[in-house]
Structures are given as structure tokens and as C-alpha cells.
Amino acid sequence: MLTSKWLSRCAPLVLLTFCITCNSSQSAKKPALAASSANQASPGQQVAAQPPISQPAALQKPVQTQEQQNITYAKNPGRFVKQQPSEVPFNITDPKTAQEHFNVAVNDDHQNQLYKAIEEYQKALELQPNWALAHFRMAQDYQKRGHTDEAIVHWTLATKYDPQFYPAYDLLSAAYAREGNLKKAIEAYSPMLNYPPARMPANYQLGLWYVQLGDAAQARRHLEAYRELALNSKSVEIQSDRFQKATKELQKLKE
User: Fold this and answer.
1) Confidence of residue 70 (pLDDT cuts 50, 70, 90)
2) Cα–Cα distance, 188 to 46 (Å, whole number)
3) Chain CA centroid to CA 220, Å
4) Residues 24-35: pLDDT tens digits?
5) Rounded Cα distance, 132 and 138, in Å
6) Closest CA relative to residue 95, chosen from 54, 69, 127, 70
């Protein structure tokens, strides 16, 4: 009897304790659910865009003004610093090989010591007689000193040892032309016709020399060959002064 009364009195207290406990656990879960629902948007909702992460100042590219972008060397040469080339120190004091003598000669050329350069080119050629470039450069030094005959000898040897040394033909024939010997100039320049890259300028120059000699037939042959090569090249040659000159000379020859 006492037990029944005790249970009837304690039952409401146990039930109240249980309800308080449940309410506390539900309250603890609500913040977590709120955070989860904030991160997961429902299908009908749009997630607000997150602001872009800005780069550190050190990684951001400097913004150039329109004035800075328009600066060019052609318009503003004073804004650009010209870097002076550094010369490599020359240290050959006792040349023994052909290459070393050649290098000393080139250095003497840069110092405008032409006679010393000629001596060194000669020593290089004694060791390597068929060196076309050494003959060519020594001929240039002879020409600068006014020794045209010696220059002609070495330009001739340069073309002998290197038949496609085009600048040697140019200077050799020009030396003859300056002396008024156009026949020798033509003879020296004609081998250029054997090489396709040189045919266009060779025909042009030969045509003009034949005009000076009064040989109309040869002049027309070479000038027409030049014009045909120029037109077939589809290059800016047809806009050049020499193309215009060749055209005028051909018109005169046809009159």
C-alpha cells in the first residue's frame, strides 16, 4: 500500500525530468542545423556569390596609363637608355697559327692600323694560301691605302678560292670600273651569272655597263633578263629605283 502511494507521487516527477532533458538536447541541435541549412541552399534558392579573393600587392601587375602604353622608341628615343657594347679584351701577343694572325689583323683593322693588318694577313696566307676571306680583307686594306693593283690581285684570288664570294666580285669589278676599264669589269663580274641568287643584280649591272660601251644588243639582253627575274621574284624589287632605271634604259634602247 505504501509502495503504490510512493510510485504515484514520484511518477510525475520522473516524467518532468525526462521532458526537461529532451528539450535541452533539441536546443543544442538547433545551431548545428541552422549552420548546415545556411551552407546548403534549397534547389529553388540561389547562393550569394562570394567576393573574389584579391591577390597580394606583390603579385598584382602594375597598371599602365595610356600615355605609358603609347611610348615607343621611334617617338620617344630619349626615354630609352642605349646600352654600350662591351669590348672583349684582345690578348693574342704571340700569334703562331693562321687563325691567330688573322685575328690580329682584324684587330689592327679596328685600330685603323692598315699596314700592320696587311702584314698579319700576309702571314696568315703564308700558312693558309687558299683562305678567301683573308685575301678579301687584305684587298680592302690595300684599296683603302690607294693600292688598287694589289687590291685587284687579292680580290681575284678571293673569287678563285671561293667562287660564290659575291662581295669579292662586286669590289673587283668596281675597281676595274673606277679605272675606266669596263671590259675588264664585265669580265670580272660575268661569273656571277652562274649562280641563281646573284643573277638578278648581275644582269642589271652588266646591262648598264654595256649601255656605257654602246653595245645595245648586249645591254637589252641583260636588262630584259633582269626585268624578267625581278617580275618573277614577286618581291619589292619591282618598286626599287634600279627597276625603274632599267625600264627607262630599255625604252631608250627600243627607240
Assistant:
1) low
2) 88
3) 40
4) 554 444 444 444
5) 10
6) 127
Which residues, other chains included, contact 154 with Cβ-Cβ below 8 Å and sequence gap of 6+?
Answer: 135, 136, 138, 139, 142
Distance separating alpha carbons of residues 226 and 202, to the nearest angstrom: 8
C-alpha separations of 92 from 95, 102, 103, 105, 242 in Å = 6, 11, 8, 11, 45
CB–CB of 169/150 below 8 Å? no
How does DSSP assign 83-132, residue by residue?
Answer: PPPPPPPP---S--SHHHHHHHHHHHHHTT-HHHHHHHHHHHHHH-TT-H
Assign 68 to helix, strand or coil.
helix
Cell of 180: 675606266
C-alpha cell at 1: 500500500
Q: How far apart are CA 173 and CA 185, in angstroms?
A: 4
Model pTM? 0.65
pLDDT 10s digits, 114-162: 999 999 999 999 999 999 999 999 999 999 999 999 999 999 999 999 9
Higher pLDDT, 53 or 180: 180
Report the pLDDT value the prediction gives residue 28, as an integer from 0 to 100.
Answer: 45
The proportion of the chain whose per-residue pLDDT surpasses 90, expressed as a percent, equals 62
CA angle at 155 for the pair 151 and 158, rounded to the nearest 5°: 145
Q: In terms of Cα–Cα distance, which of 130, 123, 86, 85 is closest to 103?
A: 123
Q: What is the pLDDT of residue 224?
A: 97
Query: Does residue 204 contact residue 221 with C-beta atoms inside 8 Å?
Result: no
Output the CA torsion 29→31→36→38 (10° steps). Answer: 150
Tell me the three cell numbers of residue 255.
Answer: 627607240
